[in-house]
Design a protein that fits this description.
By secondary structure, the chain is α/β, with parallel strands linked by helices. Helices cover 42% and strands 17% of the residues. This is LacI family DNA-binding transcriptional regulator. Pfam families: LacI, Peripla_BP_3. InterPro entries: HTH_LacI, LacI/GalR-like_sensor, Lambda_DNA-bd_dom_sf, Peripla_BP_I. Keywords: DNA-binding, Transcription, Transcription regulation.
């Protein structure tokens, strides 16, 4: 049975008006009472209607952030960019992951119900987009840091996945590589489609469809993919992997097979995570501007909270090619 505002008021030993004032972050409720009401809201899982909350935002000086987890290689840079902007503007950050699945999401929903933050930054965890969309439609300001190319129905910051992949293909061709292979990300991801499209458009007849393998964005997946390509017996002299972890796995597999990089095969990754400059040889890669994306998303959300109309199209922060020893300039 749905918890009502009357039940919250009864458990917190206050009036329904006081609960409403806490939900709307009114400053005329003493701190101890407000804390008690929020604890009851969190404990009961009470979800207020838009009318009960009054859609009053921008008063907690806190921004929520929901991410899949903190182990993704570029997540630290995104968080640093977000934190730099929020701290400079006097905002706190309430960070949520979904490491514990439904339990984590339930905790996040309780904070939403308790009106614990003014707006939400999102690196979309699996299977949450419809829920976040409903929150946005109910009045919660949301900005997505859109690494996967979903382009949802609310403001987002993206990067130039297609242009970055096209730059990788153009560089491989410019250094004389004529048989190009590709290790893609999972087909369901928008960034995989964008990177594939960009690479194919610039590779032209240097790419053979027999030299494409789907990976899983892990180092082990990259090594398995290059082993599969080698087993097919189709010659290649250049490889583009859709992220750096898979590119490191490609280097592992080529080394194990006795193929020299870059003499026999040039390799390019995508992301420019910290390990890229420390591989043997150092990895040429497409730099995804993760920190700048975090900064741009936080800036966009704070502008929205200040009353500015958010953009209707994704804000694209461009990639750049970082040339190192795995595919050096000729």
């Amino acid at each position: 049975m749905r918890v009502t505002i009357a039940e919250v008021a009864k458990r917190a030993r206050v009036s329904k008006t006081t609960v409403s004032r806490v939900l709307n972050n009114k400053g005329d409720v003493d701190a101890a009472t407000a804390i008690r009401v929020r604890e009851v809201i969190a404990a009961t899982g009470y979800t207020p209607s838009a009318g009960a909350v009054g859609l009053a935002r921008g008063r907690t000086q806190t921004v929520g952030m929901l991410v899949p987890g903190l182990t993704w290689p570029w997540m630290g840079d995104v968080l640093q960019g977000v934190a730099d902007v929020l701290e400079a503007r006097g905002y706190g950050l309430l960070l949520h992951t979904v490491n514990r699945g439904e339990q984590s999401l339930t905790q996040f929903q309780r904070h939403v119900s308790a009106n614990a933050f003014d707006g939400l930054l999102l690196v979309e965890p699996p299977d949450t987009l419809s829920y976040i969309t409903s929150l946005h439609e109910q009045g919660l300001p949301v900005v997505m840091i859109d690494d996967r190319g979903h382009h949802p129905g609310f403001p987002s910051v993206a990067t130039s996945n297609d242009k970055g992949a096209a730059d990788a293909a153009a560089h491989l061709r410019a250094i004389g590589r004529t048989r190009l292979a590709m290790v893609t990300g999972p087909a369901a991801f928008g960034c995989t489609r964008d990177r594939t499209s960009g690479f194919l458009g610039a590779a032209g007849d240097a790419f053979d469809p027999a030299l494409a393998v789907e990976g899983d964005f892990t180092r082990g997946g990259g090594q398995a993919a290059i082993e599969e390509l080698l087993a097919r017996g189709v010659p290649f002299d250049g490889v583009f992997a859709h992220n750096d972890l898979m590119a490191v796995g490609v280097l592992d597999g080529l080394r194990a097979a006795g193929r020299a990089v870059p003499a026999d095969v040039a390799v390019i990754g995508f992301d420019d995570i910290s390990v890229a400059e420390h591989t043997q040889p150092a990895l040429t890669t497409v730099r995804q501007p993760s920190r700048e994306m975090g900064e741009a998303a936080a800036t966009m959300l704070l502008a929205h909270l200040a009353g500015e109309t958010p953009p209707t199209r994704p804000l694209v922060v461009p990639t750049s090619l970082v040339i190192r020893d795995s595919a050096p300039a000729s």
